[in-house]
Specification:
The protein is an alpha/beta fold. The chain folds into two domains: 173 residues, no CATH class; 112 residues, Alpha-Beta Plaits (2-Layer Sandwich), CATH 3.30.70.
Length: 294
């Protein structure tokens, strides 16, 4: 795929991410409005009716905390969307500056090579002259060495800037799953066909939500039964892919981890947490936890 096609594809993906972020804000706002509507009548009853209903007060306090929490999430999602947009703008500006510097470095390299060619011609002509001309030729050879050194330095600088730009692009690019990776999952997960796996992803991050959808589709292609479950995690969120494993699913978890590593979707070892055995409802659960891109 050529550079213009890649740039068009990246812009389309960024537009899609912006659209997903906007829809996420809309649905969260609907939840806030729904909570307010749901508890409005209870609030009127609590204020106007007697005797005072303490149980209803506790219910109202719980509803108020939920409403505040969802409204706070809406605000954070809105701010995160603005930050992501600004980050992409800055990234494009950095890329443009690096491209400009690389072009200037290539131009300097071409000028240096041109100077080297001129010096070689002058040296060849100088060898035909007398002793004085030979001394001039020696001077020209020194010029050639310096010109070649400048050309080498310019080429080295251009290559370093190109590699730096590629590293920035790789770090900023969203996670994707290609056909070869899907084929690897299909091959390595034959023994798990028909088993259930939960794909849990951190809500509020459009890139993670898109990647969760892509991974779920790839695992479904491999024959697994997939439940997609968005949510939040208290405390530190692990980046990338990790596992949560019920006591009856450790064998399946080993197959799944090896398949994800071989497909290049995770690095070895994959972080894993054991689901407490006291929770008997989750002893057969195997969960892939998706955090933000590391």
């Amino acid at each position: 795929m050529d550079l213009p096609t890649l740039e068009t594809a990246i812009k389309a993906l960024e537009k899609s991410l912006d659209s997903l972020g906007a829809w996420l804000l809309v649905w969260t706002a609907l939840v806030v409005v729904g909570l307010i509507v749901e508890f409005a009548e209870d609030l009127r009853e609590l204020i106007t009716e007697r005797p005072f209903k303490w149980r209803l007060l506790r219910t109202m306090v719980g509803g108020l905390l939920i409403t505040i929490g969802v409204a706070g999430e809406l605000f954070v999602q809105f701010r995160a969307s603005n930050v992501e947009t600004e980050l992409r703008t800055n990234s494009h500006e950095i890329e443009a500056q690096l491209n400009k510097q690389a072009a200037e470095a290539n131009k300097e390299a071409g000028n240096a090579r041109s100077e080297a060619g001129d010096a070689i011609k002058q040296a060849a002509q100088a060898t035909k002259d007398a002793e004085v001309a030979r001394r001039d030729a020696e001077s020209f050879r020194l010029d050639i060495a310096k010109a070649n050194e400048r050309a080498a330095e310019a080429n080295k600088k251009a290559e370093e800037e190109r590699l730096a730009r590629l590293r920035i692009e790789e770090r900023l690019a969203p996670r994707r799953i290609n056909g070869d990776q899907t084929a690897t999952l299909v091959k390595d997960l034959r023994t798990l066909r028909g088993t259930k796996v939960v794909v849990f992803f951190i809500s509020g991050d459009p890139e993670t939500a898109v990647f969760a959808d892509l991974l779920s589709n790839a695992l479904k292609t491999a024959g697994l039964i997939i439940e997609t479950r968005p949510g939040m995690i208290l405390g530190t969120v692990k980046p990338g892919i990790s596992l949560s494993i019920g006591k009856n699913r450790f064998g399946d978890a080993n197959f799944l981890a090896n398949a994800l590593i071989e497909a290049g979707l995770a690095e070895k070892p994959i972080p894993a947490d054991k689901i407490p055995e006291t929770d008997q409802t989750r002893v057969d659960e195997l969960q892939i936890v998706l955090g933000p891109k590391g």
